[in-house]
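Page 37, continued from 36.
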């Protein structure tokens, strides 16, 4: 689910929690056959030109109260990160959190 969203953002040149087709986190979970969750959350980021694009994204997420809350929320029992690189070198990251 996380990788799919990052690949979609890289390929379709958008940066949003909602895809151009109207897909959102819940519909992506459904299409990824993720069932039985109580709560979902998602952090997204993109950057370019950093030696450690994932590390840079996490640093920025930790500076943002909402993103940090997702990372530190103990009710989330599952997490995944998906990363994709666009043709121009931008790196798109999606972090998904699931509470069951």
């Amino acid at each position: 689910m996380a990788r799919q969203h990052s690949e979609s953002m890289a390929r379709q040149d958008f940066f949003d929690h909602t895809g151009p087709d109207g897909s959102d986190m819940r519909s992506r979970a459904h299409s990824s056959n993720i069932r039985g969750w109580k709560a979902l959350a998602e952090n997204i980021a993109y950057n370019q030109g950093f030696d450690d694009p994932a590390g840079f994204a996490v640093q920025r997420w930790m500076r943002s109260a909402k993103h940090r809350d997702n990372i530190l929320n103990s009710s989330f029992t599952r997490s995944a990160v998906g990363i994709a690189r666009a043709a121009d070198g931008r790196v798109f990251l999606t972090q998904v959190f699931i509470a069951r």
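The longest strand covers residues 39-47. Flag for discussion at group meeting. The radius of gyration is 13 Å.
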